[in-house]
């Protein structure tokens, strides 16, 4: 087992850096508390690294790349096989760490880890995924083929809401394709990624192949501008994502940025009522709404608007509590600042005239009076100009818009600047087909509330939710983390007659 990625100093442990295979204490001057969002207990201190410590991580990754890029593809795959085994072994332990620092319920934490585990399992297929192509005899005695090669040191910047899944979207696929990696996880919940890193080392990832630094804007900017880093992958808010994409691109790097969302679910009058509303409420309030693929807007078409009271009734049945408590459906939001922002947007919605059918502000949670809790909140009568419709609230707030027809629903969604995910609930194949063809959103669900594709495919958000051509995981990420080299070859033997000198470009 790798060394402990934390060291106790005083009452709270400090989160270490991972540099060249060693968990080392940061020399950062600034530190930030990692706070349990259900109790406000300080459970760790995380360093806010500067450019110097980012540079140490990058240098370690660059040195490791010299040998790692030549590691046989089967050896890389076997490390991924071992890593998935270790993640399964430690699933409960990882979930406990995740819940303590992020707040989501233990079952949801296990789901977070499992969706990342699926990507690790997919990485085990690297032998097939990385195949090139070969064309024999493209000209007289000439063959052409292409090979995929790693691009070098890559980096990932990940958000607080999925501290297991999203790092696992990134570093396994990057390193299994022969690259080395520098990860900068969210400073709000860094302990889960560090625990995953310890498992990666136990699985056999060599020193320097995976490195981790922490921090805020200074470390992010150092990653985006470092001349050795070849590619940057980001998941997070639009504001930061746009900055990362612009800065990385200006410095000659590949960049993929998965950003904000305002995901709509269209409820048709012919939908299976019970199944559709259960799916809507679960997708709207699960993880306290802190998912970039959460369903935050319900679009009720025609007579489906009559089901709004049923949505409210179902939302009232959800139990809000600390993520460690049995039976909890949703835990706290990540921080006091997040709670205050969500509450201010709820107040703004009331001020602008939306109907507050269910007010989740200031719930009383016995034993957790200091927690960052907001209960399920429902607005109806929402208009596109309302702030609760325009803004990604990132909390347990469902806004409901009523429209007369499916055409109106499609027009509403296509006018929204975000394009992450959407869904339709219907029993009509014609309506579903029309929706999937006419909607301008990257990921579409048909009677599926959160249409995140399995790792054999790629995450395909679009428009204001994504910058960069290629998405994380799946086939697209193989293209992102490799470069294609074409080789045109002709071999001569002693019996070959020289054709003489040619000054044309023909290979005949």
UniProtKB/TrEMBL annotation:
Q: Name one GO biological process term.
A: thymine catabolic process
Q: Name one Pfam family in it.
A: Aldedh
Q: Which CDD domains match?
A: ALDH_F6_MMSDH
Q: Can you give the residue ranges of the Aldehyde dehydrogenase domain?
A: 23-487
Q: Which InterPro entries match?
A: Ald_DH/histidinol_DH, Ald_DH_C, Ald_DH_CS_CYS, Ald_DH_N, Aldehyde_DH_dom, MeMal-semiAld_DH
Q: Which UniProt keywords apply?
A: NAD, Oxidoreductase
**EC number(s) from the headed UniProt entry:** 1.2.1.27
| Signal peptide range | none
NCBIfam families for this protein: MMSDH (TIGR01722)
Hey, which family's this protein in? Belongs to the aldehyde dehydrogenase family.
Task: Give the protein's recorded name.
Answer: methylmalonate-semialdehyde dehydrogenase (CoA acylating)
Organism listed in the record:
Usitatibacter palustris
């Amino acid at each position: 087992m790798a060394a402990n990625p934390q060291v106790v100093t005083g009452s709270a442990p400090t989160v270490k850096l991972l540099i060249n295979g060693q968990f080392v204490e940061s020399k950062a001057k600034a530190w930030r508390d990692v706070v349990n969002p259900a109790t406000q207990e300080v459970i760790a201190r995380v360093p806010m690294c500067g450019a110097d410590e980012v540079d140490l991580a990058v240098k370690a990754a660059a040195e490791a790349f010299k040998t790692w890029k030549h590691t046989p593809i089967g050896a890389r795959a076997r490390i991924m096989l071992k890593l998935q085994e270790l993640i399964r072994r430690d699933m409960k332990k990882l979930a406990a760490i995740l819940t303590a620092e992020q707040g989501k319920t233990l079952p949801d934490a296990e789901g977070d880890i499992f969706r990342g585990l699926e990507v690790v399992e997919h990485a085990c297929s690297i032998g097939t995924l990385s195949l090139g192509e070969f064309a024999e005899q493209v000209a007289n005695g000439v063959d052409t083929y292409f090979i995929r090669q790693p691009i070098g040191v890559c980096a990932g910047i990940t958000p607080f809401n999925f501290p297991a899944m999203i790092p696992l979207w990134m570093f396994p696929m990057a390193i299994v394709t022969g690259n080395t990696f520098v990860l900068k996880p969210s400073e709000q919940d860094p302990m889960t990624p560090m625990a995953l890193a310890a498992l990666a080392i136990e699985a056999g990832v060599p020193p320097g192949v995976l490195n981790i630094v922490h921090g805020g804007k200074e470390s992010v900017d150092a990653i985006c501008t470092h001349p050795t880093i070849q590619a940057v992958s980001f998941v997070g808010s639009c504001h930061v994502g746009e900055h990362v994409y612009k800065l990385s691109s200006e410095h000659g790097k590949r960049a993929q940025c998965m950003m904000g969302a305002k995901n709509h679910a269209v409820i048709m009058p012919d939908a299976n009522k019970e199944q559709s509303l259960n799916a809507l409420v679960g997708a709207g309030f699960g993880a306290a709404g802190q998912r970039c693929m959460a369903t935050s807007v319900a679009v009720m078409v025609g007579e489906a608007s009559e089901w709004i009271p049923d949505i409210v009734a179902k939302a009232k049945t959800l139990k809000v509590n600390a993520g460690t408590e049995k039976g909890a459906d949703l835990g706290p939001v990540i921080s006091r600042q997040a709670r205050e922002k969500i509450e201010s947007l709820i107040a703004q919605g009331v001020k602008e005239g939306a109907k507050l059918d269910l007010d989740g502000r200031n719930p009383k949670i016995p034993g957790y009076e200091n927690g960052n809790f907001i209960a399920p909140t429902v607005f109806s009568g929402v208009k596109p100009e309302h702030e609760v419709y325009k803004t990604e609230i990132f909390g347990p707030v469902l806004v409901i818009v009523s429209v007369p027809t499916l055409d109106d629903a499609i027009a509403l969604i296509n006018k929204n600047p975000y394009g992450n995910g959407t869904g339709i609930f219907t029993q009509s194949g014609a309506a579903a087909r029309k929706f999937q063809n006419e909607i301008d959103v990257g990921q579409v669900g048909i009677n599926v509330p959160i249409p995140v594709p399995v790792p054999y495919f790629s995450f395909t958000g679009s428009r204001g939710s994504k910058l960069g051509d290629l998405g994380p995981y799946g086939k697209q990420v193989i293209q992102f983390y490799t470069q294609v080299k074409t080789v045109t070859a002709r071999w001569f033997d002693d019996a070959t007659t020289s054709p003489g000198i040619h000054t044309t470009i023909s290979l005949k």
